[in-house]
Amino acid sequence: MAPLPGAELVQRPLQLYRYLLRCCQQLPTKGIQQHYKHAVRQSFRVHSDEDNPERIQQIIKRAIEDADWIMNKYKKQN
């Protein structure tokens, strides 16, 4: 399960949110999908008051790296 194309285009939080939810749709079971969708929503809420552009870019970069790791984790299991 390779990361979805377009990760390099993610620059804003809303783009990241949509990208991560699309990644969740690629996961193997509904239970796993729901777990990660919930985690994405929670993380988005926690960071919703962030206004430092550098910190936002750090969060985006880390979230994409984490999503790639999760996608690869489930790819190896199948």
Automatic annotation (TrEMBL):
Alphabetized InterPro entries for the sequence? Complex1_LYR_dom (IPR008011), Complex1_LYR_LYRM9 (IPR045291), Complex_I_LYR (IPR052151)
Q: Enumerate the Pfam families for this protein.
A: Complex1_LYR (PF05347)
List, for all copies, the residue spans of the domain called Complex 1 LYR protein.
Answer: 11-68
Annotated PANTHER family: LYR MOTIF-CONTAINING PROTEIN 9
Task: Give the UniProt family note.
Answer: Belongs to the complex I LYR family. LYRM9 subfamily.
Protein's name according to its UniProt entry:
LYR motif-containing protein 9
Q: Which organism is it from?
A: Mandrillus leucophaeus
